Every structure is written in C-alpha cells, then in structure tokens.
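Justification of computing resources. Each target in the renewal requires a structure prediction run like the one illustrated here; the chain below, 288 residues long, is used simply to show the kind of job we budget for.
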Amino acid sequence: MQKESSQSKKILVVDDESQARRLLVQILETAGYECMAVKGASQARQRLGEQHFDLLLCDVRMPGESGIDLIRHVAAAYQDTAIVMLTAVDDRDTSGTALDIGVYGYIIKPFRRAQILISIATALRRLDLEKESRAYRRELERTVSERTAELREVNAALKVLLRAKEADKTDMAQRVIANVKQTVMPFLEKLGESPLKAEQRAFLRIVEQNLDDIVSPMVKTLSSSYLNLTPAEIQIANLIRQGKRTKEIAALLNLSENTVVSHRFKIRSKLGLKNRKVNLASYLKSLQ
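Resulting structure tokens:
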C-alpha cells in the first residue's frame, strides 16, 4: 500500500488555550497537514461526528469534559483516528491511563516544533500500519471463510457421490446374484439331475464352483450390510426392502407364506428388532 503524504492527513486540535491552538495549527499547516482547532471536548465530539480525522491532538486538562474522557470516547468510537496527548503536567498516573486507553503519543508542554512533527508523523505511520494490518486480517478471514464454504460443498458432494457409488455397487451385486439364481442355477440344477458321464459331471462341478467364486464376494458384501443373514434371508430381506409383502415374496420365490413369515422372524431377531416396534422395510432401507 502506498504511503499517503502529510497533505492528505486531517488533524483535529483540541486545547482550551487559544495561544496553544494557534501555535499548533501553524506548525502543522506549515508541515502540510490539514487542521481544525476547537477549544473543548464537546466541540471535538461534534466535529468528529461530522467528518473523518486521521489524528486527534488533545490537551489532557480542559474545563468541562477532560481530555482523558474524550480520548477514551475517541479510542472506542473512531478506530481509524490516531490520538496524541498534550499536557502541561508530567504526571505518571495520567500518562499511564492515556497509554492504557491507546494513545499513540504523549507530549509535555512546553513543546518544540520538531517534537510535535516527529510525534505526529510517528503516530500517523503507526495508524497506517494498523489499518493495513486490519485490512489484511479482514481479507484473510474472508478468504478462509470462502475456502471453508467451498470445502464444505466439496465434502458434501463427495459424500453424495460415495453414497451413490455404494448404492450402485449394492444394487449391481443384488442384480447379479438374482440373475444367476433365476436364470443360471435352475438349469444347472436340472442338468445335475440328468444322467451325465463322469467327465461331464466334473465339468458341471467346475462351472458351479466358478459361479460360486464369482457370486460369493457379492453375497459377503450384502451380508456385511445385513449382519449374519443367510443367503436365503438376504434374498428375502432385499425383497422386503423393496416393499414386497409376504404373499408377493412367497410367490416370487415359490415358497409358502409360512416359510416367508419364519424367515422374517429370523431376520428381525438377527437384526436386533425382536419385540421392537420398528418397521422392518424401513430399517433395511436405512442399512443401505
């Protein structure tokens, strides 16, 4: 950030002594500062409310509201205004209070021109650095907030994608298992019941083993969702999860309704739902 010249800086001088006000204004305006001078705290408050000042040069002891009370107000209400104190009494308690409030400089009367200009320049430079620091912190906080929001969005999107991927994997496994059982196994079973030569039966066992090797990992994946269910229970659990009723499941699997009811009872027991008023279909959907 480019350093501003003294000509662009505005200073408010507050001193109840007219001679001191005139001298201070003369020194500061000669150095290129824009000045306004008032004789008390109430006038200073009014001017501060009307326009911005880069620096307040304020006497400590004044009639009415003291300089200490004024700088306490300015330090709290005008963060971008530096404060330099003037006092005719070198009092340790007063100077300590002023420094605690946050003044940028403390000048003892009678003052010299060089002392005034050095204190003012130092205070304004410190103010510029503090403003730059505050702006940097605000920008950093904004950047962190934006990046945090972006990361939350990315994280949420990744979670959705992972859930969709897991759902796709589960659905694919279910379809493969169902297709094998419905379209392949019945014919292999019929083939096994027919008269075969020893060599043909050996080939049949190889085919059955290879199919088992393909399907078994999928059954294990589904079983991890459905705890310790048997393959038959997994098949029925999947149909329950899809919203099928006992009668429909019995017809689909060529089982009696009593057998399906028995499987449902075992499934509830293995899932820890025995004697609990929990809808089995809803619970199975929550496992996916």
